[in-house]
Amino acid sequence: MSILLTSILVGISIIAIIYLTSSLKLKAFIALFLVSLFLAFTTLPSGVIVSTIKEGFGNTMASIGLLIILGTIIGVTLDKTGATLSIARYILSKTGEGRSAQALGITGFITGVPIFCDSGFIILSGLAKSLSSKSKLAMPFMATVLASSLYSLHCLIPPHPGALAAAGMFDVNIGYLIIIGVLFAVPGALSAYFWSKWMTKGKNYAPANEVEIDRQITHEKLPSSFLSFLPIVVPLLLITIKSLLVLIDKGGESFFSRIFFFPGEPIFALAIGALLSLLLIKDKAISSLNFIFTEAIEKAGPILIVTAAGGMFGMVIKATGTGEILGKFLTGTNLGLVVPFLIATIMKTAQGSSTVAIITSASFVAPMLSMLGLDTEWGRLMAMLSMGAGSMLVSHANDSYFWVVSKFSDIEPGVNLRVYSSSTIVMGTVVFACVWLTSLIIL
Question: Per-domain residue ranges for the chain?
């Protein structure tokens, strides 16, 4: 089959995923599976179709499965035990109610490490309303501060599924990705904070009026802030220490390198975090623990199959050779990191899901890396973060998270588009600018 026809079929496949998931509202796994079959049967030799599909699905599951399950256990436990609200209260006690917006943003940023953005927003939306009512700050501003702080991490770092799946395809060091991703998420969240503050300044946006939720939070028995922080802070510290030691001692021969070799591996670090999260459960009966585990597994299941299906689609695209051809075409254009950023931006804006946008973009970009001059350890990492930045914009009406923010904050969709959606454009652009400027130094 000619490369032109193959390229056309790949393009049709990507458009089909966008159409099936956004217009027909078909589940992402089914859409990815059907399109992968279509592309495999129309472009690959019959003898390799089954092996290619199985390899793509299995390799992705092997690289991310345990991380997603362990991360979900931590997130569900923080949710069910009230630990996220305990973290929020602790931060608010340090900042004061006069800085409630900053406290809310910090809370979202910290809890956004293990908790998916939609779950985190649902958990903390009552707190956002309470703080808006007390401080008389506009609810669209407070909602956007919380939403963007959670969202900045969701698009950039593991254990969030898009970043995890793409990291497996790009063979990126997950420890480095978490550390650098968190650093780049900071200017993204800050830019959304200042932008949303400017967008709501002088407008007649009312604060929330939510006395009932405030009273409910006040009377709730929350775990200690120390125990609440442990499942988040300890894994991050372990991964960070090992990653820094690897930079200093590449052979891993030093005493400290040997100590942190296993605890600093992301799987072991998250397993330690999951064990520490169990300290938050007051009733240690097996039935109580099983309740947490059951919900975590049920929540992780759909995420696992979607990301694995994305890996399957990526393997089929790689087998067609289209990415390599396009990469050769782009060689010498000096576009570099712009390519993964733009592809992820188009995918996100068109079909709504950041996870699908990153996975599909990674499938397309992976074969191009060497031609784009990004096939080094740091080049692949920068390409990953560029796709993460692209998957932030634009969150609008075809994104389920947009409606979570709107509905749980009692904000009109038009106002949400004006404040929150425009903030995602700003934060994605700022993150990419930071990635690009950094690449000028390290690449």
Answer: 3-442
User: What are 330's two structure tokens?
Assistant: 């782009």
Distance CA 291, CA 80 (A): 10
For the packed helices 139-154 and 117-135, what is the interaxial angle rounded to 10 degrees? 150
Query: How many CB atoms sit inside 10 A of residue 374's CB?
Result: 25
How far CA 240 is from CA of 237, 244, 264, 372, 381, in Å, comes to: 5, 6, 7, 29, 16
- Contact at 8 Å (CB) between 68 and 99? no
- The residue type found at 41 is F
Residue 57's pLDDT band (cuts 50, 70, 90): confident
pLDDT, tens digit, for every residue of 282-325? Answer: 888 898 889 889 988 888 888 788 778 877 887 887 788 776 66
Whole-angstrom distance, CA of residue 177 vs CA of residue 74: 20
- The whole-angstrom separation of Cα 217 and Cα 203 is 29
- Taking CB atoms within 8 Å and a gap of at least 24, the contacts of 51-57 are 52/315, 52/316, 52/319, 53/312, 53/315, 53/316, 55/315, 56/311, 56/312, 56/313, 56/314, 56/315, 56/316, 57/308, 57/309, 57/311, 57/312, 57/315
Distance between CA atoms of 92 and 249, rounded to whole angstroms?
A: 40
> Beta-carbon neighbour count of residue 298 at 10 Å?
11
- In one-letter notation, the amino acid at residue 205 is Y
Q: Of the candidates 77, 49, 29, 121, which has an alpha carbon nearest to the alpha carbon of residue 320?
A: 49
pTM (global) more than 0.70: yes
What's the burial of 196, exposed, middle or buried (CB within 10 Å: 0-12/13-18/19+)? buried
Query: What is the torsional sign of CA 208, 210, 213, 216?
Result: positive
**367: closest CA among 344, 346, 383?**
383
Cis bond before residue 159 (omega within 30° of 0): yes
